[in-house]
Amino acid sequence: MTTPAAPLRHPGIDRLKAWVTLLVVFHHAAITYGGPGGWFWRERSSNESPTAEAFGIFCAVNQAWFMGMFFLIAGAYVPGALQRKGSAGFLRDRVIRLGIPLVVFGWLLGPVTVALAQTPRGTAFTDTLLWAWRSGRFFPGPLWFATALLAMSAVAALRHTLRPSALQSRPFPSNTVLLAAALACGTLAFALRLVWPVGTSVWGLQFGYFASYMILFAAGMAAAEQGWWLAVPPAAARTWRRVAWCALPLLLLAFAPLPMGDPMGGVSLAAAVYAFWEPFVAWGIVLTLLVHAQARTAPSGRFGAALARRAFAIYVIHPPVLVAVALAGRELAWPALLKFALTGSLACALCFLLAGLLLRVPGVGRVL
């Protein structure tokens, strides 16, 4: 029995993508004020304070699932796009929708963000900007996502060219299959981190996190091809939500000051715990959010529709906006948690407004 590919749009999924995009902004705000990870501007470095530890947990839990969710959703729309456009048309569209934002960020918004971040160190904005352009430096920033998605899309198009997939209706994967996928993801993450520990960047890509990205992208494609996209059983989500709650405390074990080795990579117990912890938490969060989203079939209200339409534009422009907002308040001697909340909120609001203006520019809507 054949089944149609995933629908072009779904209100619940559109809203989910939009809110996860805002979470990305807050994630980077947390790094700004003491959370772990790489970012253009850090007002406070990571330390062992309770606030920094809270930011660390927040960032680690986010990292386990939120970018993977984007890859899952992107993968779900690939089979239908390949059917409608063919491999060449699909890739042409991906180059426009992903390649152009990547180039614009790498050569313009990235250097602007770096230049902003250097101003507190006494370097003039224009000096840094000119240095970046003259040196030919390319700053992909969070548009590494576009690079990765372009690569995965190219593989999907090649697969479609060599052996087009029949859209065959199948039931939602059993818990045994989901468990096997989680174990495979943890094993692959552990192996990748032997070569590229967490924090190691190659062309802006942290391959140590790519196990879940690749598996979830493939899962999205399979969901669309097999007819279970937007048909996640609530019982499966409940089961994996319980698993996630049970797994969450193991994060503290992985990063505890015990003789367990480096959790970021290498042959160590801590690295194994962290690598396997991620998918068991991710599956619970992702399935829970999908069940919530698939039930929201009513059209979005005016604000929700605007936020959904502007989500990718917000993702692209948020680095310079967030850095500018953080720099504007750097002299305020306020608690880090308060600055995190205010900076993240103000950056989201400004990005929403700027994205709306940007999308009014002729031709921009075709890209973003």
UniProtKB/TrEMBL annotation:
Alphabetical keyword list: Membrane, Transmembrane, Transmembrane helix
Originating species: Piscinibacter gummiphilus
Name this protein carries in UniProt: Acyltransferase 3 domain-containing protein
InterPro entries: Acyl_transf_3_dom, Glucan_succinyl_AcylTrfase
GO MF term set: acyltransferase activity, transferring groups other than amino-acyl groups
Zinc-finger is among the record's keywords: no
PANTHER family assigned: BLR4337 PROTEIN, BLR5718 PROTEIN
Pfam (any one): Acyl_transf_3
Acyltransferase domain ranges (all copies): 12-355
Keyword rRNA-binding: no
TM annotation in the entry: 16-35, 55-78, 98-118, 138-157, 177-196, 208-231, 243-261, 267-291, 312-330, 336-359
